[in-house]
Amino acid sequence: MSKLTVKSGKNELTLRKSQQLVGIKKTETQERSLEQPDFIEEEVMKNLGGFNIVTLKKDGASVDEKLDEVRERDEVELGTHVYYAEGSNRPLVATGKIYITFHDGVSDLNQQAVLDEYHLEVIEKRTEGRFLVKVTPNSPNPIKVASALQGLSLVKFAEPDLDTILDEYAFMIPADNLVSHEWHLQNTGFVADVDYPLKKGADAKVLDAWKRLGNAGSSDVTIALIDNGFDLSHPDLQSKVVKPFDLWNQSSEVTQGDTRYTHGTPCASVALASTNGQGIVGSAPNAKFMPISGTSYSNSLTEQMFDYCVKNGADIISCSWGTTDANFSLGAIKEQAIARAAKEGRKGKGCIILFAVGNDDFDFVSFYAAHPDVIAVAACTSQDDHAPYSNRGREVSICAPSNGDWPIIAARAWWDQGLANFSGNQKFWYDGRSRGQHYKHFGGTSSSTPLVAGICALILSANPDLTAKEVKEILQQTADKIGKPSEYSNGHSTKYGYGRVNADRAVAEALRRKDQGSTPVKDEVTGGVTSGKGLFRFNVQRQAAEGCGVQIGAFYDYGNVLIQAEKLQSQFGQPVVVNINELDGKTVYKVVVGTFTTANDAKTLQQRMEAAGVKGFARNLKDLA
Question: Are residues 557 and 489 in the same domain?
Answer without folding.
Answer: no
